Amino acid sequence: MKKTFAILLAVMLFTNVSFAASIGAGYKNSLFEYNGYCYGVGANDFGQLANKSYIIKGTPVKIDGISGVKDIAVGYEYFVFVDGKGEVYTVGKNNQSQLGQGDFNIKPELTKVEGLKDIVDVSAGYAHTLALDKYGNVYGFGRNDRGQLGAGDYLTKEKPVKIYSGDVKKVECNVNYSYILLNDGTAISFGANEKGQLARGNYLGRNLPVKVEAINNVVDLSCGIDSVLFVKNDGTVWGVGDNSRGQLGVGNYTNAFPLPQKVLIENAKAASAGVDYSLFLTNAGEVYSTGANNVGQLGINDFNGTSKPVKVDIANVVEISAGHIHAIVKLVNGRINGFGSNRFGALGVGDYNNSAKPVEVKFDYLDPSLAEKNSPFIDVPSDSEDFPAVKFMFERGISKGTGQGYFSPDLNLSRAQLLVMVLRASDIGEMKGDNFADAGDTYYTGYLAAAKQKGISKGVGDNMFVPDKKITKEEMYTLLYNSLRALDKIDNTVSDVELASYTGGDKVATWAQEATKYMLAKGYLKLENNEIKAKEDAARVDLARLLYEILR
């Protein structure tokens, strides 16, 4: 229950992709990750806020005992965390051993789950939990009365048990059923099926993982209480299961669908299913919602339900999470908004009033006036690994951030944005004259002209540069290399590098191999697990790291 698109690539036998979440909306809580730390808000009946008390909190409090957080999941009054080592920690309610601790005792403090390592993805349901390691192994623990652990029986599991192994991309679960998404775009389901949520064309439950034959080309999925949303690689969304409140967004209130139905939305990159409502995120950063709206959980500034997706008045969104009857969304600048039920303070605004429109979560650490004196940006503290590189970018005038005191390190760069910063860093100024046909008349126009005239970039063909398209890492390496060559700064004494000795080296495009080899030979690329992620989109912090290594 959660998730969107902050992508982690794992290596070894499989290339598993985890949609690591940085926000999560649950039953009466919300959870937020920020610079590796976590903050919780809302109900605290079972000590799930890990602050050694059971007192409700209307504004976010820091979760003590963990840092370097890579993934989070919000269950029914319990939390699950994955740290930077791939270890799992749980806290809160434990009446069905959903914390995986080998007992049924409440845990008001973070406790490590033994037997799990190298975990890249987790999901939490009502009282059962799933975890995926980087080798494609899926583990489950907790309640299993409907076969939701896929272990072939109906017995509660007090500790993690392996339930599946394969080329797994993501795990996802909710109240009493579960899904596994594979890298080939197919899905596997098991557990309860009263509303047809297993997408098998019937209403029969399963206690073993079974492939869903009715849908393919799936890139993401989300499990609601009794409904599932599938995002396909063509940007369409398909829904299955309960639709009694219009939560599938298919334009009607047919009680349930045991086979996937096309949702009335296009260009989607993510979806999140709540109790009886759903959220959709488009590639343009827009949010749409459909279904029940009795407490304003659709965020459309009224309390009227709908069976068709309606646009929420908020823009530049990068992550969504639909909880029980409240929702949380994260903006590109790092700020977080919520809407819907706030009876237990889960919106984090300091009061307990429901909101039918987005309201900003009140984080003291997001207040620009409280930014560290040693850091030019709120979202890059001085003790972070990337602080030296980001500060270097600021002091050299390469980047002044994204506004309101933010650097937005994980924000993907467009081709034009990256080119402008590279040329600024290289002291190559704007030029007039010969330019790309799509250079326009804007802040990057003169830089595109300089790139073309100095041979830094040949564009994508037909005299086009496509400035607004996201840029990949191999394109970034090539632009940097060509800039160094234009300045006669190439070191011809470096030794040759064999790309084949690196994981992913065979995926580097022919035209990018020379630049990639040079970056490796000079030690500019700091690789994780010796892996070259050439096709991955480049983020602002990726460029900062490279420029810092090259120019300092």
The CATH homologous superfamily name of the largest domain equals: Regulator of chromosome condensation 1/beta-lactamase-inhibitor protein II
Provide the spatial order of strands within the biggest beta sheet: 3-4-5-6
Overall number of domains: 2
| Gyration radius from CA atoms, angstroms | 24 Å
Largest sheet: 4 strands, antiparallel
For the secondary structure, the number of strands is: 30
Q: What is shown here, in short?
A:
The chain is mainly beta and 552 residues long. The protein is built from 6 helices and 30 strands.
What are the main properties of this structure?
4-stranded antiparallel sheet, 2 domains, mainly beta, 6 helices, single chain, Methylamine Dehydrogenase, Chain H, disordered N terminus, 12% helix
Structural features, described:
The protein is mainly beta and 552 residues long. It has 2 domains: 6-366, Regulator of chromosome condensation 1/beta-lactamase-inhibitor protein II (Methylamine Dehydrogenase, Chain H, 7 Propeller), CATH 2.130.10.30; 410-551, no CATH class. It has 6 helices and 30 strands. It has helices at 387-395, 415-425, 445-453, 473-486, 510-521, 540-551, and strands spanning 6-9, 17-20, 23-25, 29-34, 37-42, 57-62, 71-74, 78-82, 88-92, 107-112, 119-124, 128-133, 137-142, 157-165, 168-173, 177-182, 187-191, 206-211, 218-223, 227-232, 237-242, 256-262, 268-273, 277-282, 287-291, 306-311, 317-322, 326-331, 336-340, 355-360. A 4-stranded antiparallel sheet has the order 3-4-5-6, with no helix packed on it. A 4-stranded antiparallel sheet has the order 7-8-9-10, with no helix packed on it. It has a 4-stranded antiparallel sheet with strand order 11-12-13-14, with no helix packed on it. A hairpin with a 3-residue loop joins β11 and β12. α1 packs across α6, α2 (415-425) packs parallel to α4 (473-486) and α4 (473-486) crosses α5 (510-521). The chain is globular and about 70 Å long. It starts with 5 loop residues before the first strand and ends with a helix. Residues 3-19 and 365-373 have low confidence and may be disordered.
